[in-house]
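request received
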Amino acid sequence: MKKKIFSGVQPTGNLHLGNYLGAIKNFVDLNNDAQNKCIFCVVDLHAITVSQNPKDLKSNTHETVATFIASGIDPKKSIIFKQSQVSAHSETAWILSCVARMGWLNRMTQFKEKAGKDKEKASIGLYSYPVLMAADILLYDSTHVPVGDDQKQHLELCRNIAQKFNNDYKIENFFIAPEPLIKKEFSRIMSLKDGLKKMSKSEVSDLSRVNLTDDKDQIINKIKKAKTDTLPLPSAIEELEKRPEAKNLIGIYSSLMNNTLQESIDEFAGKNFSEFKEKLSDIVVNEINPISSEIKKLLDDKVFLEKILKEGYEKANEIASKKIKKIHEIVGF
Ligand code: TRP
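response:
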């Protein structure tokens, strides 16, 4: 049976190696498997749950589309579209917000983290964000959703919403409860400056991440300056547990080489970091450089990017409009 894959990326700018290895590279593999039907959504409605500069939001949307294509997602095979263009997303989110329970949302750990100490000042959108995410997924009868570990709870919520809707309206299998696709080994790429913190665009030091738009010299410099410990590289996986920076760098290497951790450890056991980092720089540059130059090229061709979004909108909207029409009938509108 064909898998129906759906995933979303927020257009918040500055995509980095963590986004690439944790999500986009995986999307490319899914796109390349003829068994899959993939939809990749630029989730601008999600982005405005925290304040955004409208000009930046627009250019970050283009940058996200350019990154998808530059990384190898083929818009002829997969649908790439912008969430806000397909109005069924907002509409379905409202209807589902009448199905989801406060108690369920109150358990969402990402809201607690993002809202921080002053929950009273967080937007209502930030709170109901997972309901919109459920709408995204359920509108397309998605069977599989590739996400990072941090989205697992939201996906569980989506399954609960789907089941409750089906139960409440006594219509079996109308919404399909999707399965998460989580890459266990390398889904969390950590900061180059602190192996315990996730690589993030919001970390102050640019040296903490490899941006997908970095050039060769920047990449080499960042890897050279990446934090390590003073021991040689380990010879057993267990040793990595107490060495977060070594674990992260070997993880990045393995992920780019499509190796297992064990294979990479076998390759570098007992060697020192300088030798390993040289090799690592080479492969990061080899992978990221063509992507970054392609992103730049595509960003110069806004007409092309808009065309991709328009075609994606038409395909996505066709599917979503049919589903929302049925939702209207079921609910009694
Ligand atoms: N919440 C996801 C994130 O921040 C993005 C997202 C929005 C998403 N809608 C989605 C992911 C639907 C998967 C499916 O990473």
